[in-house]
Structures are given as C-alpha cells and as structure tokens.
Design goal:
With 191 residues, the protein is mainly β. 4% of the residues lie in helices and 53% in strands. Strands 1, 2, 3, 4, 5, 6, 7 and 8 form an 8-stranded mixed β-sheet that branches. The longest helix is centred in the C-terminal third of the chain and has 7 residues, at 171-177.
Length: 191
C-alpha cells in the first residue's frame, strides 16, 4: 500500500542494431625469415539499444525532501523506455613481428593501440547495452566517452616450442609422446 508502480515499453520505431567492421593490413617478409605486419581495425555499432527511466527531470530536486528527485509523472516510480539512439566506434592499429628461431621455436609479438567510444555500455559478460546507465534520457549522445572496456594499449607475445617427434622410438611411444608443442602467452594492457 502506498508504493508506486512502474511501467515500461519500447520505442515503436525501434530499429535493428547493426555493426560495420573494417580491416586493412599489410605484411612484409624480411630476410632471415622475419615477418612484419601492420593492420588497421575499425568498427561502428549503430542503433544500440539503451533502456532508461524517462520519468525524471534533470536538475529538478526537492530541497525539502533530502534531495529526492522530482518525477514529472508522480503516479509512477519509473517509466522505462527502450530506444536505440546510442552508437559506438572502435579504431585501432596492430603492429606485429614474427620470427622462427631454428626449426623448433617460433616467436610472435604485437602491439595494439586503439580507442573505443560509446554512449552506453556495460562490462558484465553477457549483458547488453540495455543494462547500462543513461544520465540524460533526452540526450544520450551527450555522454559519449571512452567505453568502460576501452583498452588503449596492449602488448602480446607468444612463443611455441615443438617438442621432438621421437621418430626413432616405437610406434606406441611416438603416438603418445611425440609431436607435442609447448606454448606460452604474455599479455600486458595499460592506458
């Protein structure tokens, strides 16, 4: 008794969200089996879905009620609406080098520099943009900024060592213990 109800719905002109991905890369083989590579990666997410409480007035607070927001429609606690006025962009470059050392060891290292911008996002796995915070439901684009999952710089190195094939051993031993590989990966992210 006395509690306000909430209602919600979707914008009747809701569009399908979609993304556009771009890639361009060049690779060059240097003497002594060195390979260098430079890649551009870009993507744009359009019409991303954001669900927000439309029953609020920015800057409207009741000073006599401990700063409780004044709602334009006092009959409901929240009026949630799903719209797709949000977008996202990613632009980045990767610079990589690969080199085999002898016949059994291969090393690859890459540096990625990029930027992810969005109006709404969440970092929980499996959660969509509809769970993110919208500060001004009437101007979502005003909160465009670095995404919460933006990683401006990343360095990755990996090496693979091919263990002996045991070609002079009995077939059972060759099958079980021969031809294995040992790998290691190092990833550093910062920014």
């Amino acid at each position: 008794v006395g509690a306000l109800s909430s209602i919600g719905g979707a914008d009747p002109s809701l569009k399908y969200p979609y993304s556009i991905n771009r890639f361009f890369g060049v690779q060059y083989a240097l003497p002594d089996k060195w390979v260098v590579e430079a890649d551009y990666i870009g993507s744009v997410g359009n019409h991303l879905i954001a669900t927000t409480n439309m029953n609020r007035c920015l800057g409207c607070f009741e000073p006599l009620n401990n700063g409780t927001p004044v709602t334009p429609n006092s009959y409901f606690s929240s009026i949630t609406m799903s719209t797709n006025g949000a977008n996202s962009t990613y632009n980045g470059g990767t610079f990589a080098v690969t080199h085999p050392f002898g016949s059994n060891f291969n090393l690859q290292a890459a540096l990625t520099i990029g930027k992810t911008l969005s109006e709404v996002d969440v970092i929980n796995p499996g959660a969509g943009n509809e769970a993110s915070t919208v500060y001004d439901p009437y101007n979502i684009k005003a909160q465009r900024s670095y995404a919460s999952f933006d990683i401006p710089k990343a360095f990755t190195a990996n090496g693979t060592y091919h263990l002996p094939t045991l070609s002079n051993e009995p077939a059972v031993l060759r099958t079980i213990a021969g031809g294995w590989q040992v790998s290691a990966v190092l990833t550093l992210e910062w920014g």
